[in-house]
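Re: the request from the purification team.
They wanted to know what the chain is likely to look like in 3D before they choose a buffer screen. I agreed to run a prediction and write the result into the notebook, where they can find it.
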Amino acid sequence: MKIRLFTFLLLYVGNILYGQSVSRDLYYLSGALNFGNYFGTDLNIEYILKGKTSFKAGLISTGKNVQDLPEDFSTIQAKPTEQFGAIYFCAGTVIYPAASKKIRLNLSAGPALGLHYLPYGFYKVPSSPNPDFYFWETEKKRFPALVIHPELDCLCINFSAFLLALSLWQVVR
């Protein structure tokens, strides 16, 4: 069994559907830009029950350039990317460290189903129109994972907030 750890630092741009009140159940959509081992996006929907328990479902799509390219790989050719995507479901608890209820810590974790695309086996085809271009195979893997997703929410107004989150993915193959 092979284990890998992917780490993403997420900066959420905003939320919609009034996810800021603590006096009722909350639901909202959020989008994210991911920075870390991979670069990409994250889209999720979250439901907070009575301001204390959170449930989240989301999609993540990330990628990075392949590092092990042949030395004479053409600079005008598009570089292959290693891609990681997942569907995840998280549950957790919400903590309000400040009395103002404008800042909350959302601690959540849950299962994920991941998909990994890894380019390999670079080769040239002599009969191609441009002999400097490479072709390659792509290995596709599906795997279960566990995601740990703590986030710090700074609430601005009724329909906007900024979130800083760290996602740890423990991938078991």
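For the purification team: Strands lie at 3-16, 26-36, 39-49, 53-65, 81-95, 103-124, 134-148, 151-157, 160-172.
Please add any questions underneath this entry.
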